[in-house]
Amino acid sequence: MTRTGHLIDDAPLTSFHKKLTAFSSGGPFIDGFALSIIGVALITLEPAMELSATEIGLIGAASLVGIFVGGGVFGYVTDKIGRHVMYIADLVALAVFSVLSAFCGEAWQVILLRFLLGVAIGADYPIATSLLAEFLPKRQRGRLLGAMFVVWAVGAAAAYVVGFFARGLGPDAWRFLLASPAIFAIITLLARMGTPESPRWLMSKGRMAEADASIKRVFGEQYGVADLPEEPVVSTSFFRVFQKPYLRRTIFVAIFWTAQVIPLFAVYTFAPDLLESFGLYGDANLYGGSLLIAILFVVGGIPGLWLVEKIGRRKLLIGSFAIIVVALAVPALIPDVSAKIFFLALAVFAISSGASSFLEVVYPNELFPTEVRATAVGMGTAISRIGSAAGTYLMPMALVTFGASGALMIGAVVTLVGLVASIFLAPETRGASLSDTASKTESEVEKSADPDPAPVTRA
């Protein structure tokens, strides 16, 4: 190859990139599956343990609180000790905590294990996305990082399919449902074995020989560290993401991510209750309406993955926020809204959310340097889960107090906050190299962004 390009940023897409994207997607799949399966499991878990409204709320929110801890702690740990070790370890934890959930006898045990499961899920966000981002060419980075996160919605839809086939297991069906994420964790664990460490991270730690070996393993013996720009050897500091020039970016990521996930997790966790309040009961609710809403999140991701490289990150985020505000507000503004209009509003919300929710992992991976990239993703994950946990815990009470339409109106207000923040804070990073986005100001990043970067030529 000519030495005028960046080996990773300007490389053509290869089978290695596709495999790494698939293996990294296992975490978001399990996340979507595990967070949605609880809504199905509660159907048999609630009467089996005679759960109170408070216990139901805590069970729904426990994994989200765990994600807060997992993201906040293990993003930093990943920047300190490396991507590869954590890439494997968190899946072992996912499998163990899922299996133990099947043997719970009391509500506090379910709450504790759902919390620990959330810790493992939260850890995977910064681990898998930072490793993947550091290997992807800039021309495909947004799309492939996005595809990884769209798989979250596939996992959520799969939860309802598994729930449908578990209907005949009787009053203890919840035990199988809570243990079922272990199956996908083990499959993903086996697939990830042997994944190389990020050469960018190795270079940032001054481990040049290991970085050179990693590059040769992936791209061929003719390549090495000379084919990458220098990575400054900087010690990882947790507080760097709260200092200039990164504080503004951390605030932006925290606000827009939180505004996206509060209504998202509330709808996913309590979709059966929302639809039941408008007259949809039984299998038609859970395996009809709820499954369809979950599938629409996936459907929305298809045009989103095209738009993220076509119109860019900023326009996609602002546009989807605007549509969601309208969709969630409509049921509250129409007196005696019909079940059809209510379901249509949820469908529009699902499609729009699916079209842009993956920006939650694209933006922080592009806006922060290697030495704190995972820390930044972890902080975004953690901060956003404070809101989503509170929203999930309060959702049952909101449904009782304000009704389904009122609960969605609260989601519209939260989304409006995200819209306003994005208008003022969201930069455009399409086509920019990770080195550029990490070292430049927002205006400089946008000027350096290349919408149609040419691939590296090979000698």
UniProtKB/TrEMBL annotation:
It is found in: Cell membrane. The keyword Transmembrane applies. Residues 439-450 have a biased composition (Basic and acidic residues). The chain crosses the membrane at residues 20-44, 56-78, 85-105, 111-132, 144-167, 173-191, 250-271, 291-309, 316-335, 341-363, 375-395, 407-426. Residues 432-459 are annotated as: Disordered. Residues 20-430 form the Major facilitator superfamily (MFS) profile domain. The keyword Lipoprotein does not apply. It holds the Pfam family Sugar_tr. It is a multi-pass membrane protein. This is MFS transporter, putative metabolite transport protein. It comes from Rhodococcus koreensis.
